Amino acid sequence: MTCRICGSSTETILDLGSSPPANSLLASPTDYARPFPLVLEHCGRCQNLQLRDCLTAADLYRDYLYVTPDSPQLQAHYELLLRALTAERYVEPTSFVLEIGSNVGMFLRYLQPRVRKVLGIDPAANICRMATDSGIDTICDFFEPRSAELIENAHGKPSIIVARHCLAHNPDPHLLISAAASLLTDAAYLVIENAYALNTVQQNEFDQVYHEHMFYFSIQSMSALLGFHGLHLVNALLAPVHGGSIVFVAKRRCAGDYAVPAVEALLRRERASLTPHVFSQFRSATESIRASLRSLVHGLVADGKLIYTYGATAKGNTLLNYTGLTHEQIPLCADSTPVKQGKYLPQSLIRVVPEQEALATPPDYFLLTAWNYRDEIIAKVRQSGTVRSRFIVPVPHVEVV
Ligand code: TMP
Ligand code: ZN
Cis omega before residue 173 (within 30°)? Predict the structure, then answer.
């Protein structure tokens, strides 16, 4: 296949079979969601990792179910992120912040009292309504050159554009970057946050591979992508959210620009770590997690134990469908998102219920399909008085805690 960043040919490094789009939860267990392949490829030229088969953004985002959870971990992340961006003066009290893929406006709500102006843009109509209702001015559209021009005409050019966990959600990343570049003045910054390929691969996070994640960015692939649009990387910060994320800070290439030394250090580590040997370890670890999880769950069920999953996450669907676990072993999934409750996970047909309902009949084990919120979920379950449930953590290795 062809690299969608640089056009070179790619090689397959992981094949997870087929799964329906992860956020296509079903209204009824007799509904059908069509599976599509989940195959990860690597480009040896720009070090891009990409999904081989992409669905169109219009297919994925017409009616969207991901609502940013109100999580202490995410709030702490917003605080740290703003502190880091402020320290470098990428953000100032006079800034106009445009956020792409702003979802229900959780991050902008945090920024609003701290900057001059915030504006969001998100393609999902149901999600935009929730943002607007909460007081965050949000445009319902895809961010591309056409909508960027409308934004400039109506609001002027932003001082900073933020795109958190959304650049990988479109088969053509050049579209978003070229639109952002068209809005950037020489003094403005583009901040892109994404799961970091190095964490995905080194921590065996194969379940991060789902149809919305069409790219797994590294410093190398991001630099290649930015270079096509006259932009370059000036900083990169690591953050623990979503299993290990990276925050790229880019700007229009200008005389006198320099990248902070941290970028070079991260790059050296990355070059030593994203190697064919590491990809092959990633593949064997993935297969071994599948085998251990299957045997653990089947063994527990045979012993009469009750298991629920915690978090109707996109990665949970990859995990369940790749391991072949279904409602036959795991009857319920607890999740705090009202739009997911009462629905069924695609293919595994596990029914999603509110957390309180799951905690009212606590199982012997929760399979943590939202392992990125591991500590806060365990604390929440303990606080509910449910002391007997144990937790199965699937990555980086299957572990019972
Ligand atoms: P994410 O890992 O993609 O952010 O998805 C997290 C999912 O887990 C989301 O559907 C909300 C759910 N969740 C809970 O049900 N309870 C919680 O305490 C947290 C933090 C998340
Ligand atoms: Zn490439």
Answer: no
- Cα 387 to ligand 2 centre (Å): 49
Strands 36-43 and 10-19: antiparallel
Q: What pLDDT, in 10s, does the model give residues 333-369?
A: 999 999 999 999 999 999 999 999 999 999 999 999 9
Q: Which ligand is nearest to the CA of 355?
A: 1
60 pLDDT band, cuts 50/70/90, is: confident
Asked whether 348 lines ligand 1 (CB < 6 A), one says: no
Is residue 371 within 6 Å of ligand 1 at its C-beta? Answer: no
Q: Give residue 224 CA to ligand 2 midpoint distance, Å.
A: 8
Q: Which atom of ligand 1 is nearest to the CA of 355?
A: 15
The two structure tokens encoding residue 372: 């990125």
Q: Is the Cβ atom of 336 under 6 angstroms away from ligand 1?
A: yes
Tell me the per-residue pLDDT of 168-209, one tens digit each, with 9 for 90 and over: 999 999 999 999 999 999 999 999 999 999 999 999 999 999
Q: Give CA–CA dist 265/319, Å, rounded.
A: 33
Helix H or strand E segment including 276:
helix 276-302
Residue 102: partners with Cβ closer than 8 Å, 6 or more residues away:
108, 120, 121, 122, 131, 136, 138
Residue 357: CB atoms within 10 Å: 12
Which ligand gives the minimal distance to the CA of 370? Answer: 1
CB neighbours of 333 closer than 8 A, spacing ≥ 6? 308, 309, 310, 311, 312, 316, 345, 350, 351, 352, 353, 358, 369
Does the beta carbon of 212 lie inside 6 Å of ligand 1?
Answer: no
The verdict on the CB of residue 205 being under 6 Å from ligand 1 is no
**CA angle, residues 74, 185, 98, in degrees to nearest 5:** 30
Q: 304 C-alpha vs ligand 2 centroid, how far in Å?
A: 50
Of 335, 350, 360, residue with least CA distance to 69: 335
Which residues fall inside 5 Å of ion ligand 2, going by CB?
Answer: 3, 5-6, 8, 43, 45-46, 48
CB of 311 within 6 A of ligand 1: the answer is: yes
Percent of the chain scoring above 90 in pLDDT: 93
